[in-house]
Design goal:
The complex is a heterodimer of chains A (126) and B (394).
Chain A (H helix, E strand, L loop, with lengths): L5 H8 L12 E7 L4 E10 L2 E10 L2 H14 L4 H5 L3 H7 L8 H24 L1
Antiparallel strand pairs in A: 1-2, 2-3
Chain B lengths: L1 E2 L10 H13 L9 H21 L6 E4 L2 H18 L4 E5 L4 H12 L3 E5 L9 H7 L4 E5 L13 H11 L2 E5 L18 E5 L10 E5 L25 H16 L1 H20 L4 E3 L10 E6 L4 H10 L2 E2 L5 H4 L6 H5 L4 H4 L2 E5 L6 H20 L2 H7 L8
Parallel strand pairs in B: 1-11, 3-4, 3-5, 5-6, 6-7
Antiparallel strand pairs in B: 2-8, 7-8, 9-10, 10-12
Classes of the chains: A alpha+beta (126), B alpha/beta (394).
């Protein structure tokens, strides 16, 4: 048996939405190098719709796959829907993660929440 | 596939497999039985004991067969601790980067009232004999220091430590799991009182190992029961596997010089190639290391994803990252040589075998370079390092 599901391996080997958005409307970074996982999410938002999303991740296979899947789940979606994204939904979309890797999906949820908060606080300042 | 994880386990030698199968087929008697068919198994067992003893310069009666290195470590340390306690000595000297079979046994003894000095292994991954000497007190019951480290391959000054312990009249145990069959060992010349070994690290079968204990050292049992192994390790002996281990050890010892020269050349080539990857560093001393061991840290990436991508390229390797160690912390060995967490997560161990070719080395250098560059390409840490927001460590 393999360590990860086929879906996890697919998203790890062929991550979607990798990269940076230079003029991002919201950026969220979570984790730290000490624990071995850092995720950074960049959002482009137009009319309350997430028109583009990119990620950068330092971490294990499931951290990279979780970032990739999470970006897929929110791309093109309204903000209200993105705000409700849970780590469980990310893990389920990946056909499950090993128990000791569930924290990777939590990081993905937190990174997106943080990017959304960043967007909102920037809006309030405008 | 290029199998570059020989420090984890090795492929069995054909001669060892043949020996095992032949004994399973023809010599399945119980060595404790008195009829000839049982005594034939007893002969095979004692022949294996003689072979193992001769390779390390010991006497056959000083060899106790175990299930592996971990059991041997446990029994050696427990026995020495008990002997010390009987004389009121409850101090043990060890190092920060021992195998967990040693560290966890010591942690248990600490709970039972022993005190343990864990010596520093410095940036080069080497214990200093003078620091061993300084750590020994009137209360010291045992010094236990590994022969060669399993992660970074550094070879410890065992002969000097042995001499110091003998002068100070303190028992000296060494976990030689990574060294035996790969480095010349003589327990008499090196003043080693106890030594642990594991069969599957030198092309023998898994589930085999032995403990050498100099005659006169009273061992205590981990397993109580029958009178096997001079009453010190109960349970019917796994004769086919033990005999197979002895064949593998003899084979490794006989060709040690040539294997060592071959591997050292390939290892150095691999080290040279990987050193060209920017912001990388070799872990452990470049010279005083096992001929098979290469261990690097690459800044800005994480080890598990590195291993998975190398697996996709047909390379089987190992890492000391938290995700591969099953805990939140990276390898205690890398932390012991002063690598900070950020960098220790990005480690790679390649332990090559004697079937490795120059083409394999070139392919590994190329593949590791590609994978490291790919992962750095979307690592937020690497971006910060490149942008000057963070300082490079390596």
């Amino acid at each position: 048996m393999a360590l990860y599901s086929e879906k996890v391996m697919d998203h790890f080997l062929h991550p979607r939405n990798v990269g940076v958005i230079e003029d991002a409307d919201g950026i969220g970074e979570v984790g730290n190098a000490k624990c071995g996982d850092i995720m950074k999410i960049y959002l482009k938002i137009d009319n309350d719709i997430i028109t583009d999303v990119k990620f950068e991740t330092f971490g294990c296979g499931s951290a990279i796959a979780s970032s990739s899947m999470a970006t897929e789940l929110i791309k093109g979606k309204p903000l209200s829907e993105a705000m409700e994204l849970t780590n469980k939904a990310v893990a389920e979309a990946l056909d499950g993660l090993p128990a000791h890797k569930m924290h990777c999906s939590v990081l993905a949820e937190e990174a997106i929440q943080k990017a959304l908060e960043d967007y909102q606080s920037k809006q309030e300042k405008k | 596939m290029i199998y570059a994880d020989n420090a984890a386990t090795t492929k069995m030698s054909q001669a060892a497999i043949d020996k095992m199968v032949s004994l399973m087929n023809d010599t399945y008697g119980n060595p404790s039985s008195l009829y000839r068919f049982g005594q034939k198994a007893k002969e095979a067992l004692e022949e294996a004991r003689e072979t193992v003893a001769s390779v390390i310069g010991a006497e056959p009666r000083e060899i106790l067969f175990t299930s592996g290195g971990s059991e041997a470590d446990n029994q050696a340390i427990r026995s020495a601790a008990l002997l010390g306690k009987e004389k009121g000595k409850t101090h043990i000297v060890s190092t920060k980067f021992e195998h967990h079979a040693v560290l966890h046994t010591l942690a248990k003894l600490e709970k039972e009232g022993f005190t343990v000095t864990y010596l520093d292994v410095h940036e080069d991954g080497l214990v200093r004999p003078e620091e061993v000497e300084a750590a020994i007190t009137e209360e010291t019951a045992l010094v236990t220091i590994m022969y060669a480290n399993n992660e970074i391959g550094t070879i410890q000054p065992i002969s000097e430590i042995g001499r110091i312990c003998r002068e100070k009249k303190v028992l000296f145990h060494t976990d030689a799991v990574q060294a035996i069959g790969h480095l010349p060992i003589n327990v008499v010349e090196q003043n080693i009182d106890m030594l642990s070994a594991s069969g599957h690290k030198f092309h023998g079968p898994k589930g085999t190992g032995f403990l050498y204990a100099r005659k006169g050292i009273k061992l205590s049992n981990l397993i109580e029961g029958g009178a096997q192994e001079r009453g010190k390790r109960a349970g019917t002996e796994n004769v086919p596997a033990i005999a197979s281990m002895a064949v593998a050890l003899k084979e490794a010892a006989d060709k040690m010089e040539q294997t060592s020269a071959y591997l050292t050349e390939k290892r150095n080539k691999l080290i040279d190639g990987l050193s060209k990857i920017e912001h990388s560093a070799l872990n452990g001393d470049a010279e005083k290391r096992l001929p098979s061991n290469v261990n690097f840290c690459f800044e800005g990436i994480e080890g598990e994803s590195l291993l998975l991508l190398l697996d996709e390229k047909g390379i089987a390797a190992s890492s000391g990252s938290a995700c591969t160690s099953g805990s939140l912390d990276p390898s205690h060995v890398l932390l012991a040589i002063g690598r900070v967490h950020d960098v220790a997560h990005g480690s790679l161990r390649l332990s090559i075998g004697e079937d490795v070719t120059d083409e394999d080395i070139d392919y590994m250098v190329k593949s590791v370079g590609e994978v490291v560059a790919y992962l750095r390409g979307f690592s937020p840490i690497w971006r910060d390092l490149q942008a000057g927001k963070k300082q490079f460590i390596l």
